[in-house]
Amino acid sequence: MFLAHRSGQPACAVVTESDTHGAIWLDLVDPTDTERDLAAHLTGKIIPQRSDLEEIESSSRLHTDDDAVYMSLPLVQRTEADLSSSPIGFVLTPNWLVTVRFSDYASFDNAARQVAESKTGFSSDDTLVMILECIVDRLADVLEHVGLNLNQLSRDVFAGYDPKGNIRLASWQRTILRRVGHAEDFSSLIRDSLLGLDRISIFISENRKHTLPHGLAARLATVSRDVTSLTDFVSQLSNKIQFLLDAALGFISIEQNDGMKILTVVSFIGVAPTLIAGIYGMNFKDIPELKWAYGYWYSLAAMLVSVILPLLWFWRIGWLKTDNR
């Protein structure tokens, strides 16, 4: 999809060159080769493909070509059930801003709405800074969502396993670890987006070939400060995720130790009666109790006592309590 944005007007689809008359922002959404070629013809610049935007080295993500500035970053997107990330690209020229993306983003929708509702004209620099501001605002909302999920995860971890629930212990443990892993994935995706934004803001502010007006430079500095504060927040979330992972593994270890205690008790109380039964089951002629009338009941009583005494001892030290958390 190829969209053209004009100040004070809604976005319109671009089919021919005349559809871009008066537009300052050209938005390519999962573009076809035909749409990419049309944008390249209109701007006179190379429009990057997805493989170009997915390069990880800084020289590929941030560079200039004559009067055009090429920038890209991986941008995280939150859906109802998951987070995902895909690359977005910017081609900034004195007359045009071209964005290349492969998914719908709420931040771009918000920026398009501001352009459509604006009563004053936008330049390509204005549009770029506004989009970056919208992206930062959206990432802040996503981080709030991730923080709330982490708070719920923390409560679930420290509430512990509920044996009265419908979920088994092993399933509960796997669910907790899976949620911790997903939280770390989300944090990593957001961290990558913030790192890309920070690099873009620094690259633009230090680019001598394309200098921003003073007002836009101040707004870009504010974006940079917001990115720094969000990066610090992500670091706190990462520390909390690591803490929750350690706590979850610790509780799992405790549960496993409880299981080993039961096995130890069962093994221990089985040794003494087995020994007694083995002694009185030996086939020797001169066994003292061989002809004793109460020998059978005596051996049963001895085995019973050898079971009861260890059980009482294990109960006293707390190994047999139903809840020892």
SSE blueprint:
Elements lengths: L1 E5 L2 E5 L11 E5 L3 H11 L6 H4 L4 H4 E4 L2 E11 L4 E10 L4 E5 L4 H12 L6 H36 L9 H37 L8 H67 L14 H22 L9
Parallel strand pairs: 3-7
Antiparallel strand pairs: 1-2, 1-3, 4-5, 5-6, 6-7
Helix pairs in contact: 4-5, 5-6, 5-7, 6-7, 7-8
Quick recap:
The chain crosses the membrane at residues 262-282, 294-315. With 325 residues, the protein is of the alpha+beta class.
Question: Could you characterize the architecture of this molecule?
Answer:
- Keywords: Cell membrane, Ion transport, Magnesium, Membrane, Transmembrane, Transmembrane helix, Transport.
- It holds the Pfam family CorA.
- With 325 residues, the protein is an alpha+beta fold.
- It has two domains: 2-254, Beta Polymerase, domain 2; 258-316, Up-down Bundle (Methane Monooxygenase Hydroxylase, Chain G, domain 1).
- It has eight helices and seven strands.
- A seven-stranded mixed sheet has the order 2-1-3-7-6-5-4.
- Strand 1 (2-6) and strand 2 form a beta hairpin.
- The mean pLDDT is 82.
CATH architecture of the largest domain: 2-Layer Sandwich
Structural class by SSE content? alpha+beta
Can you identify the CATH class of the largest domain?
Alpha Beta
Q: DSSP helix count? A: 8
Spans of at least 5 consecutive residues whose pLDDT stays below 50 are none
- State the major sheet: 7 strands, mixed
- Major sheet: arrangement of strands: 2-1-3-7-6-5-4
Count of β-strands: 7
CATH homologous superfamily annotation of the largest domain: CorA soluble domain-like
Radius of gyration: 34 Å
CATH topology of the largest domain: Beta Polymerase, domain 2
Portion of residues in helices? 55-70%
Query: What string gives the helices and strands in order?
Result: EEEHHHEEEEHHHHH
Silhouette: rod-shaped
Pfam families: CorA
Membrane topology: Multi-pass membrane protein
Protein name: Magnesium transport protein CorA
GO molecular function, one term: magnesium ion transmembrane transporter activity
